[in-house]
Specification:
Elements (H helix, E strand, L loop, with lengths): L6 E6 L2 H10 L4 E7 L5 E6 L7 E6 L3 H6 L8 E6 L3 H10 L3 E2 L4 E3 L2 E7 L5 E7 L2
Parallel strand pairs: 1-4, 5-9
Antiparallel strand pairs: 2-3, 3-4, 6-8, 7-8, 8-9
C-alpha cells in the first residue's frame, strides 16, 4: 500500500491576500483556484518543484476558524519547507520582506531558520544535510 499526504489546509483571512503572499513572497505556484458554492474557493498553492503536495488555502468561515488563523499549532513551527539551496532562498525571502524570527543556524539535520508568514504561522526553511 502506498500513501502520502497531498494537501495540508491552512486557514487564512482572505483568499487573494494569501495567494498574493504565498506566490509573491515565498515564490509558490498557484496550482488551482476554483470557485465553489457560497463564495468559497478551492485554492491550492505549492512550492516550486513540489511533487504532489501543497497547501489548501481555506478562508476562515466562523469565529472558531478565525481564532486559528496564524496559530494553527499554538505557536510552534507549523510547516517545514525544504530547499536545495538555503542561502539562495534565505536571501530571496529577506529581499521580498519575509520576516525571519531567528538567524540561520546549522543543526545535525541541516541549515535552518524560522520565519513567519503573513498571519504569524511559524515555518522552518531547511536545507537538509546530505
Amino acid at each position: 500500500m502506498t500513501q502520502r499526504i497531498g494537501l495540508v489546509t491552512l486557514v487564512v483571512d482572505e483568499y487573494d491576500e494569501a495567494i498574493s503572499y504565498y506566490i509573491g513572497k515565498l515564490g509558490c505556484a498557484l496550482v488551482e483556484d476554483t470557485a465553489l458554492e457560497g463564495g468559497k474557493r478551492w485554492v491550492v498553492v505549492a512550492p516550486q518543484g513540489a511533487a504532489g503536495s501543497g497547501l489548501l488555502l481555506a478562508k476562515a468561515a466562523d469565529a472558531r476558524q478565525k481564532q486559528a488563523v496564524g496559530s494553527q499549532t499554538g505557536g510552534g513551527v507549523f510547516l517545514f519547507l525544504h530547499t536545495d539551496d538555503f542561502r539562495r532562498d534565505y536571501a530571496a525571502y529577506k529581499e521580498r520582506g519575509v520576516t525571519f524570527v531567528e538567524e540561520p543556524r546549522q543543526e545535525s539535520y541541516g541549515t535552518v531558520a524560522v520565519f513567519t508568514d503573513l498571519y504569524g504561522n511559524r515555518w522552518d526553511l531547511i536545507e537538509p544535510e546530505g
